[in-house]
Write a structure and sequence with these properties.
This protein is an all-alpha fold and 237 residues long. Helices cover 79% and strands 0% of the residues.
Length: 237
Amino acid sequence: MSKLGKFFKGGGSSKSRAAPSSQEALARLRETEEMLSKKQEYLENRIQRELSLAKKHGTKNKRAALQALKRKKRFEKQLTQIDGTLSTIEFQREALENSHTNTEVLRNMGIAAKAMKALHENMDLNKIDDLMQEITEQQDIAQEISEAFSQRVGFGDNFDEDELMAELEELEQEELNKKMANIRLPNVPSSSLPAQPDRVPGRMSSTSSSAHRSRAASSRRAEEEDDDIKQLAAWDT
């Protein structure tokens, strides 16, 4: 068995040790990433420094230049190892974060399922069906009541329409007769007109025109009276 296996076996043999929580594990992984990032920055600076020394000595001091290049190679090897370790830790941290998220989602879904179960324990499908049927019946009753109130109430309205129309026509005819009786017609003279005296030829034209105007005025008055009578008859009908 390798030393690494013995180390992990010896360190994890105690069953009484409780496993760390996901939050604690994530915190430790972040601390490790931060430590390795600082070590990575340090190695990059050392590599640049050794490279500068190798260039400085060059051919003047080959021994010092070679020592600087050797140190540079060791630092580059350590930097490569740290890069791989950081990649592994980053992958492990992301997997742990996803597992923690899935665990929280599952736990919350379980809580929601229990809450729904507790709510549904007080519900009976038969009671729900009965309740909905009762609501429907009450709505139908309310609709019937509304329709009953909206119907026309006609107590004692059973009359014959023809008799009412005949009575109305009689009343209109009586009113028309009263109005016609109150109309005064013009008096017609009973005596004959006096004989016209002999006219002087010079006055014949003026007398004839006066008589014509008188007849025209009488005709207009008669026409106006006829129009009044017709208008009264139209109002009554």
